[in-house]
Design goal:
single chain; flat; Endonuclease III, domain 1; 2 domains; mainly alpha
């Protein structure tokens, strides 16, 4: 092991820059020691987090198995509906826009005050952005969302007499409305044959082997190809509820999964968990050694 020389005062004042430029880091220097240990632990954490990622299956399951999996999900979630609270299509549209990068539960806590202040599209269209921002601040990205829902309300008033349109083309022309939002409004508010792909749907569809698509549209096409149109709007909720309750991103509850006997990800999850445990043990050992080095350098 090469000898580590003592750093000069210049190194101590610019320790990180000096090390990045190839200078020797002196572990007897408190500044360098703290910096070095921080960098090392961060690298360990990054390595562990990479191992912890659960990969998707590389191939789709057969159509027969996929349809059987979907039938099991339908049986498991027979009364699946949206978790968003709403009283009419306008409120649903606004709630879905607010739900981007936010939980439905948080949206449901936010919308009562918003709709009390602005109960119609006309009222919201005349609102000041700053007043809307105050009411939806807890939803995250509130400035952009406030701008979008006010602009969408104005578009409803100007082009649709304040009513939410019932076609995809007209919905997607509204500010802040993309394919997913339009699909939710069409399927939930109007009972249309539409299948929205959000984070949960994307993950569960891949894990169950329905798709290998890399875009929401590709996933939508693969999943809808397995079902009659009459079930598209329900299947969206089956996958969402399954993703929230069982097929979670980091720690799926495979032992409780009604589809586990058919799921191609069951073995992948088990292997990933084993690797996660081994990495955790290795990380703990490295951290112990880093602490020992730090202690020894102080002495």
């Amino acid at each position: 092991m090469p000898r580590v020389p003592r750093a000069s005062d210049r190194h101590c004042r610019t320790g990180e820059a000096a090390a990045d430029n190839g200078d020797v880091v002196d572990l007897s220097c408190a500044f360098h020691r703290s910096w070095f240990i921080g960098r090392l632990v961060a690298a360990i954490e990054r390595k562990i987090s990479l191992v912890a990622v659960i990969p998707f299956p590389k191939r789709k399951v057969s159509k027969a198995i996929a349809k059987e999996e979907l039938a099991l999900l339908e049986a498991a979630y027979p009364h699946a509906v949206t978790a968003l609270s709403y009283r009419n299509p306008f409120e649903l549209l606004v709630a879905v826009i607010l739900s981007a990068q936010c939980t439905d539960a948080r949206v449901n806590l936010t919308t009562p005050a918003l709709f009390a202040a602005f109960p119609t599209a006309k009222a919201l269209a005349n609102a000041r952005a700053i007043d809307v921002e105050r009411l939806i601040q807890s939803c995250g990205f509130f400035r952009t969302k406030a701008k979008n829902i006010v602009a969408a309300a104005r578009a409803l008033v100007e082009a649709h007499e304040g009513r939410v349109p019932e076609t995809r083309e007209e919905l997607e022309a509204l500010p802040g409305v993309g394919r997913k939002t339009a699909s939710v409004v069409l399927s939930v508010a109007f009972g249309a044959a539409a299948f929205a792909v959000d984070t949960h749907v994307f993950r569960v569809a891949h894990r169950l082997g329905f798709t290998t698509g890399t875009t929401p549209l590709a996933v939508e096409r693969d999943v809808t190809g397995l079902l009659p149109e009459s079930k598209w709007r329900f299947a969206h909720h089956w996958l969402i509820l399954h993703g929230r309750a069982i097929c979670k991103a980091q720690r799926p509850l495979c032992d409780r999964c009604p589809v586990r006997q058919l799921c191609p990800s069951a073995s992948i999850v088990a292997k990933t968990r084993a690797g996660r445990e081994n990495s955790g043990a290795a990380g703990a050992e490295v951290r112990r050694r880093v602490r020992s080095i730090s202690k020894a350098s102080k002495e």
